UniProtKB/TrEMBL annotation:
Keyword Glycosyltransferase attached: no
Single annotated GO MF: hydrolase activity
Entry keyword annotation includes Isomerase: no
Top-level taxon of the source organism: Bacteria
Limits of the Amidohydrolase-related domain: 242-380
Pfam families for the chain: Amidohydro_2 (PF04909)
Keywords: Hydrolase
Gene3D superfamilies recorded: Metal-dependent hydrolases, uronate isomerase, domain 2, chain A
Protein name: Amidohydrolase
């Protein structure tokens, strides 16, 4: 079955979700090896490393940092997060010596790469085989040769204080006196993002509240807004007071996404500790809480991120049954390769292949994206080969499935002016044994 593996290796991926910062920002932060840790930092912290290790302005020398890192690296190197770090630096920088001296030498190489203007193109296009990546960095100012922006919209509906309203006023450029002004501000911000090239909006509310969205009236939402407008001593609404306003604004946001034919990415499932604001209340992210929204907005396209892990059986059932819902495997492979294999097996059996988004690296630095893409191709190959060996798919079926989930579905869903996999292979065909 080497032909399947080779075929998948040659697919030019469209990456559905990243947090890759602009190259100019990477240079500004003088990024080094320790800035590549990203997800493994969570494992290092849960293994006992003091979170202050990652804070700006630390007083440790590079040698001291390397010594402390290695102490906790040996406690965490079994995890897939750690494996991704290992793959990225061994493949891209030739790292072999996991000692203090080896880390210091690696640090020099990573810093040199930070100032290489071709580094992003080399890693993403040449090494990872990624033609385009959607990146969520709170800005539409991206290199459009490599990226398309996705924008977080939580700041437009997470309204609990005057500071939240003032931030929207600054972004909109007008004062917000009445509830209707708040809706106008949201509309103007979305329209600006669309003009600047946004391909999708992102709702990350599960990190700070439940995904359950009720159906409050405009009067209920306006009442909560007016309560905020009476605050002058840095007060905030309690969560239960803020919910009618937040829920009403989420409905309005989805309606605007429909207007602009814009898919809506929603965080479901597992939470990253470094960005959690709720103490990792995992049950906030249960995908079944979204059902009322999915039922109401049949004309919207919802992209449910991260396989809903660990609630992925419910996730799969919802993706199977709702024509307007897409299942996205962003982040999944590095959370648990074993669970993602299980998800893929079940997806093949349950979900139309046109409704699966097969890869999103979800990293802040390109080195992590490279390693994640390598793992995703390997797992997808293993699953498809097993399906072929058991007689559930032909080799042609398997290759078509891979084309759909790694590239073609994203072209259709996000209205990208790009070539499908079959068009890219014209004149450069990878043979598949029949």
């Amino acid at each position: 079955m080497n032909s399947i593996t080779q075929y998948i290796e040659n697919i030019r991926i469209i990456d559905g979700h990243e947090h890759l910062i602009p190259h100019s920002e990477r240079k500004k932060m003088d990024a080094d090896f320790f800035d590549l840790l990203h997800y493994v930092r969570s494992d290092l912290i849960t293994a006992g490393l003091d979170p202050s290790f990652f804070e700006d302005g630390h007083s440790m020398s590079d040698r001291e940092r390397a010594e402390l890192f290695l102490k906790y690296w040996h406690k965490t190197k079994n995890t897939t997060y750690a494996q991704m770090l290992r793959w990225s630096v061994e493949d891209l920088y030739g790292m072999k010596d996991w000692s203090v001296e080896g880390i210091l030498e690696l640090n020099k190489k990573v810093k040199k790469a930070t100032y290489d203007p071709d580094h992003y193109r080399y890693v993403l296009k040449d090494k990872a085989g990624i033609d385009l990546a959607f990146t969520l960095i709170f800005s539409t100012n991206v290199d459009f040769e490599l990226f398309r922006p996705v924008m977080f919209m939580d700041h437009t509906f997470n309204i609990t204080s005057l500071a939240n309203i003032e931030a929207l006023e600054k972004q909109w450029g007008n004062r917000i006196y009445e509830f209707e002004d708040l809706l106008k501000a949201m509309d103007a911000i979305i329209e600006r993002y669309v003009k600047e090239g946004m391909v999708s909006i992102k709702i990350g509310a599960a990190y700070w509240r439940s995904l359950r969205v009720d159906k409050p009236t405009a009067n209920e939402a306006s009442y909560a807004f007016n309560r905020v407008k009476t605050f002058h001593l840095k007060e905030s609404l309690a969560p239960e007071e803020a919910k009618p306003l937040q829920d009403y604004l989420i409905h309005h946001l989805i309606q605007q996404a429909i207007k602009f034919h814009m898919p809506i990415q929603i965080h479901t499932g597992h939470q990253e500790p470094s960005v959690s604001m709720n103490g990792n209340i995992l049950t906030n992210s249960k995908v079944t809480d979204l059902v009322p929204l999915l039922l109401e907005y049949k004309e919207a396209n919802f992209v449910l991120l991260h396989g809903g892990y660990p609630y992925y059986d419910e996730f799969l059932s919802i993706v199977k049954n709702f024509p307007n819902v897409y299942g996205d495997l962003t982040w999944c492979y590095i959370i648990s390769p074993t669970a993602t294999r299980d998800m893929l097996f079940k997806m093949i059996e349950m979900v139309p292949q046109s409704k699966i988004i097969g890869f999103g690296g979800d990293y802040s630095q390109v080195e992590g994206t490279y390693a994640h893409a390598k793992l995703a191709r390997r797992i997808l190959s293993e699953v498809l080969i097993s399906k072929i060996e058991h007689g559930d798919m032909t080799e042609e079926d398997a290759c078509e499935f891979a084309d759909y989930i790694l590239r073609d579905n994203l072209i259709d869903l996000y209205n990208l002016n790009m070539k499908y996999s079959s068009q890219l292979r014209e004149g450069n065909h990878v043979s598949i044994s029949k």
